[in-house]
Amino acid sequence: MAMTDDDLVAAFPHHLANDVRAVSAVMPEARIAPVSPFSVYVGDEVVAIPYRIYQDELPVHVVCALTGVQQAILHCLYSRHSNGLVRQRHLEQIASSDEAWAVPFVVQLAGEYVLEILESIQHGLSDLPFKRSAQRLAYGDFVARNPGFFARTERRVVSYWSCYYRWKFPVFGTYPGCHLLELLRAAAVDHTGRPWPRHTPPG
Q: pLDDT-derived band of residue 60, with 50, 70 and 90 as boundaries?
C-alpha cells in the first residue's frame, strides 16, 4: 500500500505539517504495512502512526540538510521500519527527546520483541527516573492520556517476555521491559496523583 503525504502528516500534531511534508519530499517512495495505524493522543490531538514502513534509508548528506526538527521527524518515522536494526538506529536518535510527539514512537517500541531496542530505550530515557525531569513530565502526560494504549503495551511486553526471554529472565521483574514499564507507570502516577492500574505480573 503506497504511503502518502497525508499518512505521514497524520502521524504528528498539526503544527508540524510543513516540516513533515519537507521530510516526505526527500524520502524514497515507500509502502506502509496493510495494518491499521495506531492512534494515540499527543496533547489534545489524535495522531495516527504507521504500524510499519518499508523504504530505503536516506544518505547522510540528505539527512544533514534537514532542520533539527525535521531530522527528529525522520527518525520517528524510520523507527517504524520493517527492519529491526533500522528501527533501533533511528530510535537511538529520538529516545532521549522530551518532545511530546516523539514519545508515542518510543513507547510503541517498548512493546516490541527486540531486547536490544528495550535496552536502547532505557539508555535514552536516563532522566525518566527523576521527578520533575522533562522526560518524566512528557511520558507521564502521554501515559495518562492513553491508558488503553499503555495497557496494551504492558500486555505485549509480558507476552514477548514469556515467549522469547523467559529462559534468560525467569522472573518478570528481572526483565528490562519490566523496569521500563515501572518507570512509565511511576511517571503516570506523578502526573495524575493517583495509583495506576497494573497489567503485568508484580515486579
A: very high
Distance of CA 119 to the CA centre of its chain: 13
Strand partners, 53: 32, 81
In whole angstroms, give the CA distance from residue 21 to residue 163.
39
Average pLDDT rounded to a whole number, residues 54-71: 95
- Which pTM does this prediction carry? 0.94
Q: Distance between CA atoms of 50 and 33, rounded to whole angstroms?
A: 8
Spatial contact of 57 and 80, defined as CB atoms under 8 Å apart: no
Are residues 37 and 10 part of one domain?
yes
Instruction: Specify the number of domains making up the chain.
Output: 2
Enclosing domain of residue 8: 1-94
Compute the Cα dihedral for 90, 136, 118, 148 and give only its sign: negative
CB within 8 A of 25, min separation 6: which ones? none
In the three-class reduction of DSSP (H, G, I as helix; E, B as strand; rest coil), residue 175 is classed as: coil
- For cell 528501527, the residue is 87
Helix axes 134-145, 176-192, angle to 10 degrees: 80
